[in-house]
Write a structure and sequence with these properties.
Two copies of one chain form a homodimer.
Chain A: E1 8-9, E2 15-16, H1 22-35, H2 38-50, E3 53-54, H3 55-61, H4 67-79, E4 83-88, E5 94-99, H5 101-137
Antiparallel strand pairs in A: 1-2, 3-5, 4-5
Chain A binds a DNA duplex (30 and 30 nucleotides) through helix 4.
Chain lengths: ~140, ~140
Amino acid sequence: MQGIKPSMRSPLGREIPDQVDPVLEELVRGIIAQVADKWTMLILEVLEEHGTLRFTQIGKLTEGISQKMLTQTLRQMERDGFVSRIVHPVIPPKVEYSLTELGHSLSAAFCGVWEWAAARHADIEAARRAFEARNRAD
Amino acid sequence: MQGIKPSMRSPLGREIPDQVDPVLEELVRGIIAQVADKWTMLILEVLEEHGTLRFTQIGKLTEGISQKMLTQTLRQMERDGFVSRIVHPVIPPKVEYSLTELGHSLSAAFCGVWEWAAARHADIEAARRAFEARNRAD
DNA sequence: ATTTATACATACCAAAAGGAGAGTGACTGT
DNA sequence: ACAGTCACTCTCCTTTTGGTATGTATAAAT
């Protein structure tokens, strides 16, 4: 069972006390936080499932998203290199979005967390019920 | 390369169109979102590194957290069964926190995302610089 | 009698996030 | 002439989030 931040081991097998470099750590944490954002996850999912899509199509497939958040999230994902944005200079405008290789790899990485959540959600729900019961008791 | 939500396959190898059950999906998404929260990640990390800790110790080890968020986050983690909270009925009060097995497993699951972020952060930074450059150009 | 220590709860307030809705530009079809 | 289409942008407003500051309980120590 490993920690959240993978402990590094030297070739000799001695454990190096997670001295990863605070700057990188901060960056990585920021990336994770952003990636785990509700809309980012949802859009990642629809693009993974449907391949290349246009702006309004993503909006329809992403239940409940506002236009503002759609634009904002897609921009952010483009900025970070997760999606590619191809503008066709026609009228009315046509813009196509799809996942880059980096986007696919991100999706794959999150797969593990999904599996964990799917496997353990029953335990979490049970814990919540137990917690509720304990607190009703006093 | 798999999707964010692991596609299920029947024994015949046919792909079942991720019809997982929207209720479970919503729950799982909620769990992920919460787990990826800044303070939750940090506290998970210090508890994984240091084992059992008291309230104020966690506060000191978790750089920049306010008392309010510490209480709030710990309660949430307790509620979900990630940490156990043992109250010693002494004065002044003594409360000890530690990760449960579920907490450790969560930490382990997130390890994959950390590895991905560490491996690919350079690509993300490069994408950001490229994006900046593109937008300065117009 | 007053201070100290610990683990909180509570109230108040500023900042940030995010939704709703209207506006824009340019061409195409009626 | 005018409505329709698409991919936005912009403004206004509400909700949420999170920090600060203060209060509380209890016994031991000074």
